[in-house]
Amino acid sequence: MDKIFFNHMYFYAYHGAFPEENRLGQRFMVDLELGLDLCPAGRSDDLKQTVNYAEIYQTVKEEVEGTQVKLVETLAERIADKCLSQYPIEEIMVRVTKPDPPIPGHYQAVGVEIRRSRT
């Protein structure tokens, strides 16, 4: 399966299980891989034969910044559901990363990765 990918889309939002996350907000990084057949677009050079990257970005932005949830698992699921329902893709990988979570310890980031498909 061919793929379109988005690396390191950054957003500021108010998701989290802790009250300070909901009040102060934090950065979220989202990566996507969209699985679909890119051959028709590659042969025709026609945007209508593929997925418009700007539209995907806007869909993810609206989901991340527009709805507050407690879990990044929920956020990833919502992004996957919305993309699968709105675009002609067969499968999707969504990775949501919290670079600065309010938990003690030494680490670079925490997050989740999910894979979903139409079947």
UniProtKB/TrEMBL annotation:
EC class of the enzyme, as a word: lyase
Reported EC number(s) for this entry are 4.1.2.25
The Dihydroneopterin aldolase/epimerase domain covers: 4-116
Any Gene Ontology biological process: tetrahydrofolate biosynthetic process
Drop me one GO molecular function for this one. Answer: dihydroneopterin aldolase activity
Against Gene3D superfamilies, the record matches this protein to:
3.30.1130.10
Entry-linked Pfam families: FolB
Q: Which domain of life is it from?
A: Bacteria
Got a GO cellular component term for this one? Answer: cytoplasm
Record's PANTHER family?
DIHYDRONEOPTERIN ALDOLASE 1-RELATED
> So what does this one do?
Catalyzes the conversion of 7,8-dihydroneopterin to 6-hydroxymethyl-7,8-dihydropterin.
Query: What protein name does the entry list?
Result: 7,8-dihydroneopterin aldolase
Q: Which species is this UniProt entry from? A: Hazenella coriacea
